[in-house]
């Protein structure tokens, strides 16, 4: 276990009470007719670019798109072209709506087609906490704490500020009317250009991402039709303006903050409306446009649960990186969900995925105490509460240990609270519920004092209320109880304070953990992203404090601009950027307790970026990441090279600095974050252990990595650490990462009753009851089956096939239920080779496919739409739309294990449903 893991900084999670027993109930089922986060029948198809077609006979100056469409027509495949891409070298292809999703495999078989991938939805950037308010001209500088801990202040002092560099921000748009973002739009201004791909009203209607969004009706109501225009202005969302300020805020502003690359030029690509999700074909469009417009850097503070490196936007982001531009993408804010839940397109193999480190300070405000002697009290808001005058305190309880203060309507004896500042203790019910009760008695300004859950931003809806620390609240409540004339005021200027963050300098707990399911090193590097003050749309307050990997990502984009300014914009510089950032980063501990291990590299990446050292490094160590992979594909012997690009001869010694080993599974399921750490580390040997390199010369180092011993493989321990190359003057490091288990042993399909109180997978009827025996369905509006399943781990391939009810087959999961200990597989059920041949899959006779999906992410354990998958058969149809004749059937579910071989029966998990009668 990780001793002294830091406390949660997410107040909303801290107050959520979890019901005992099962986490979900059948009433949580929502009758979705798609599985996963894809849009039905919509695909992105990649075709050969004209120049890649070896014999141009077929081409005769026609576009490869047109040849492809002709092939579709020849095969009588129904399709509609939604969009075309033509970026030779990056991506040539189309977005198609197919008449039948099952035609995807036929499309892939067409000559010249390289790939076909479903269009997936990406949720809006999650904002971990938001504090906004009016502009306060008197607030002092925050000391640029984020710039100080990363060496950006030293680069600014050298006059390096991003001059001549173009950064494309793919986000919610930017409010360039904010004077600190240049005040205007177009050539000559800070925001030189961009595009609005969507318009205000666009937004797939989901809050929680992935599965939740997939109700078909959301696609028919018109709000999801993008309305593009050339103006990326955003005055309704705000996220992109905050991102833009981290890169480019003008240094002369009321807070004296500045962008990391405040002299760089910005192109703003707006791909989110005022709220809601975006489909990834629009991300692809923005990426290709950003590349075409000559941006040196593209930055994306967005992502959706993915787990794999295969998504279209991930693949294209990686190709753009390969071309020598720098692409920075948020790692994600799903740290609480644990490991194996990485986000796309940050998963793009050569993109830079960015983790967040908490700022060392939190910019907050003080209130003044009157009537009794007391120091100013710090309250959790970046900007002063808009409250005038000095107001007496009224405490809703004089008991400073009360558990459920103001959770019930206040007593009749309560005075009119409109002339008071009301004091309430945190706990038991939501803040909004307390404040609603206070408001019922006229109270409109409330201080909530902490009960030990932690001092943080809180969710108070429209109410004027802030959190104060426990001791301050206890003091005010006791003074009130004693009848002292205690009152407070909220200075509108001069009361800003830099509150030291207890988690400052540590990896933000919300940072999503890597690696990907195919074992790529994600995130790459960390930057300040927790409690960041930056610009905001003028109508929304001009400045705001937000937290998220969304904030860390533009920081690295800004550092990338400084790198390009200092070293030139050649593709060679772009290609070594990640290596430079990783090998010079600062290692981050897992807590502030001495003796605790370093944070797992699966959450900190190679450490907190050190912009000054990265840009001025005269030693290039590469590769910067050594991946040993899992035990079944173990590569324990690796090499790296140390190249002296300086003017002096250097002597280095090599040492091993292990990080905590992440125990990514606990009790058969992925461990929630903070993921427990073990101090049992890998053993690493080097040859040579020290050496001298002359200017212009390189030294090769061979490394032998042996996984840690004494750990349980069933915990899927991910070990990681640093190989330090150092002398008294300088130090660099290479990172390594491996798994002390075989990924193939991870159980993909959850077959427990943990989540629903009854075993899944299961078939539910239209009222959400799980059926246990044969059942007939008429497929009217209230009588149809739904398949309910959870993925405990990502899978490269999932299929549901309709089979005969009396099929002779021994499935892994049903068998486990019956014979949990022995795991006997008696017969060889499906054998290889398998192919797209009809009527069977892996030699099991099937009647037709109900669903097929590749590279699916695992589920979370949270009931927000990501916790389980559901596929409702509201009509009796195969995946290709053909009607299933009346009769009796079962559904066979098969999921390929990670690293499994799709031609081997033993690499699939399988489950057979009860008999389903179709009586339509
Ligand atoms: C804010 O209050 C804290 C706690 O009393 C105090 O240490 C700090 O100096 C105050 N800052 C300002 C600017 O008043
Ligand atoms: C609460 O609202 C009322 C009505 O708008 C106003 O008169 C009163 O001053 C407000 N109280 C505070 C504490 O701001
Ligand atoms: C906030 O205020 C708006 C406008 O007055 C209202 O529509 C909305 O319901 C309020 N929200 C909450 C959470 O009270
Ligand atoms: C790890 O091994 C698997 C199985 O061979 C492979 O698919 C994957 O690409 C490897 N990952 C890396 C980062 O090399
Ligand atoms: C389903 O309907 C068929 C045909 O009417 C009937 O033979 C069968 O008994 C029914 N099964 C159940 C479980 O009701
Ligand atoms: C749907 O079919 C079921 C089962 O036959 C029946 O009980 C129910 O009344 C039908 N509902 C409607 C709306 O026709
Ligand atoms: C759809 O799939 C079913 C089951 O595999 C098959 O019998 C049918 O011919 C297919 N229909 C079309 C139009 O391809």
TrEMBL record:
Annotated Peptidase S8/S53 domain residues: 162-607
PROSITE patterns listed in its UniProt record: SUBTILASE, SUBTILASE_ASP, SUBTILASE_HIS, SUBTILASE_SER
Alphabetically ordered keywords of this record: Cell wall, Hydrolase, Protease, Secreted, Serine protease, Signal
CDD domains for the chain: PA_PoS1_like, Peptidases_S8_5
A Gene Ontology biological process term: proteolysis
Residue ranges of domain C5a peptidase/Subtilisin-like protease SBT2-like Fn3-like in the record: 630-731
InterPro entries: C5a/SBT2-like_Fn3, Ig-like_fold, PA_domain, Peptidase_S8/S53_dom, Peptidase_S8/S53_dom_sf, Peptidase_S8_Asp-AS, Peptidase_S8_His-AS, Peptidase_S8_Ser-AS
Domain PA: 403-473
Catalytic residues in the record: 171, 239, 550
A single cellular component GO annotation: membrane
GO MF term set: serine-type endopeptidase activity
Family label: Belongs to the peptidase S8 family.
Protein's UniProt name: Subtilisin-like protease
């Amino acid at each position: 276990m990780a001793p002294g893991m830091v406390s949660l900084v997410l107040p909303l999670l801290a107050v959520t009470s979890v019901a005992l027993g099962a986490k979900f109930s059948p009433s949580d089922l929502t009758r979705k007719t798609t599985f996963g986060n894809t849009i039905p029948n919509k695909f992105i198809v990649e075709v050969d670019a004209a120049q890649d077609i070896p014999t141009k006979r077929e081409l005769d100056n026609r576009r490869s798109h047109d040849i492809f469409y002709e092939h579709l027509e020849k095969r009588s495949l129904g399709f509609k072209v939604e969009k075309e891409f033509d970026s030779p070298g990056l991506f040539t292809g189309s977005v198609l709506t197919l008449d039948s999703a099952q035609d995807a495999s036929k499309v892939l078989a067409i000559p010249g087609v390289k790939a076909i991938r479903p269009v997936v939805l990406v949720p809006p950037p999650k904002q971990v906490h938001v504090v906004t308010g009016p502009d306060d001209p008197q607030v002092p500088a925050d000391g640029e704490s984020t710039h100080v801990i990363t060496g950006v202040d030293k680069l600014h002092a050298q006059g390096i500020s991003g001059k001549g560099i173009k950064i494309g921000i793919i986000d919610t748009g930017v409010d360039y009317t904010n004077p600190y973002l240049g005040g205007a739009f177009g050539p000559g201004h800070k925001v030189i250009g961009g595009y609005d791909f969507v318009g205000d009203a666009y937004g797939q209607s989901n809050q929680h991402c992935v599965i939740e969004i997939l109700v078909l009706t959301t696609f028919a109501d018109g709000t999801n039709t993008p309305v593009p225009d050339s103006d990326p202005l955003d005055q309704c969302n705000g996220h992109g303006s905050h991102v833009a300020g981290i890169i480019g805020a003008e240094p002369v502003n009321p807070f004296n903050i500045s962008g990391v690359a405040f002299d760089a030029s910005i192109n703003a690509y707006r791909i989110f409306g005022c709220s809601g999700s975006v489909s990834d074909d629009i991300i692809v469009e923005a990426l290709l446009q950003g590349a075409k417009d000559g941006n040196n850097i593209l930055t994306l503070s967005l992502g959706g649960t993915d787990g794999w490196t295969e998504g279209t936007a991930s693949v294209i982001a990686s190709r753009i990186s390969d071309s020598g531009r720098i692409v920075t993408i948020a790692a994600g804010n799903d740290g609480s969900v644990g490991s194996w839940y990485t986000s796309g397109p940050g998963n793009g193999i050569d993109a830079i995925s960015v983790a967040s480190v908490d700022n060392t300070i939190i910019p907050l405000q003080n209130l003044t105490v009157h009537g009794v002697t007391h120091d100013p009290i710090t309250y959790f808001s970046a900007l002063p509460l808009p409250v005038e005058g000095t107001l007496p305190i009224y405490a809703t309880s004089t008991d400073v240990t009360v558990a459920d203060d103001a959770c019930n309507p206040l007593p009749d004896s309560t005075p009119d609270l409109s002339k008071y500042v009301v004091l309430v203790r945190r706990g038991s019910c939501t803040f909004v519920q307390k404040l609603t009760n206070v408001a019922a008695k006229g109270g409109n300004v409330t201080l909530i004092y902490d009960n030990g859950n932690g001092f943080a931003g809180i969710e108070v809806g429209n109410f004027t209320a802030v959190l104060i620390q426990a001791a301050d609240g206890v003091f005010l409540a006791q003074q009130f109880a004693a009848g002292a004339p205690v009152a407070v005021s909220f200075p509108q200027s001069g009361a800003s304070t830099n509150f030291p963050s207890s988690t400052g300098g540590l990896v933000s707990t919300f940072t999503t953990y890597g690696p990907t399911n195919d074992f790529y090193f994600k995130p790459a590097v960390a930057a300040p992203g927790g409690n960041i003050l930056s610009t905001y749309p003028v109508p929304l307050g001009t400045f705001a404090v937000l937290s998220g990997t969304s904030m860390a990502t533009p920081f690295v984009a800004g550092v990338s601009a400084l790198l390009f300014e200092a070293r030139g914009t050649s593709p060679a510089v772009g290609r070594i950027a990640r290596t430079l950032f990783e090998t010079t980063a600062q290692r981050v501990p897992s807590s502030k307790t001495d003796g605790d291990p370093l944070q797992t590299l699966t959450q900190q990446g190679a450490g907190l970026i050190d912009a000054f050292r990265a840009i001025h490094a005269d030693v290039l160590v590469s590769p910067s990441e050594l991946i040993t992979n899992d035990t079944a594909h173990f590569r324990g012997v690796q090499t790296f090279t140390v190249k002296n690009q300086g003017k002096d001869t250097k002597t280095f010694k090599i040492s091993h600095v292990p990080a905590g080993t992440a125990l990514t599974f606990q009790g058969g399921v992925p461990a929630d974050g903070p993921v427990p750490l073990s101090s049992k580390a890998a053993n690493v040997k080097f040859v040579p252990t020290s050496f001298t390199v002359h200017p212009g010369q390189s030294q090769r180092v061979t490394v032998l990595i042996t996984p840690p011993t004494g750990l349980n493989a069933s915990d899927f321990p991910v070990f990681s650490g640093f190989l330090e190359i150092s002398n008294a003057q300088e130090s660099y490091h290479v990172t390594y990462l491996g798994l002390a288990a075989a990924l193939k042993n991870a159980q993909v399909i959850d077959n427990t009753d943990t989540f629903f109180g009854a075993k899944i997978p299961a078939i539910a009827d239209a009222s959400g009851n799980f059926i246990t025996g044969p059942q007939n369905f008429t497929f009217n509006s209230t009588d149809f089956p739904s398949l309910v399943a959870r993925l405990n781990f990502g899978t490269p391939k999932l299929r549901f096939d309709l089979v005969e009810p009396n099929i002779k087959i021994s499935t892994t999961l049903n068998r486990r239920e019956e014979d949990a200990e022995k795991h006997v597989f008696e017969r060889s059920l499906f054998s290889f080779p398998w192919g797209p041949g009809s009527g069977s899959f892996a030699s099991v006779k099937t009647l037709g496919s109900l669903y097929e999906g590749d590279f699916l992410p695992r589920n979370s354990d949270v009931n927000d739409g990501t916790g389980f998958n559901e596929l409702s058969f509201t009509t009796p149809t195969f995946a290709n739309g053909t009607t299933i004749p009346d009769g009796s059937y079962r559904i066979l579910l098969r999921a390929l294990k990670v690293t499994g071989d799709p031609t081997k029966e033993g690499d699939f998990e399988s489950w057979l449903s009860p008999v389903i009668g179709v009586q339509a």
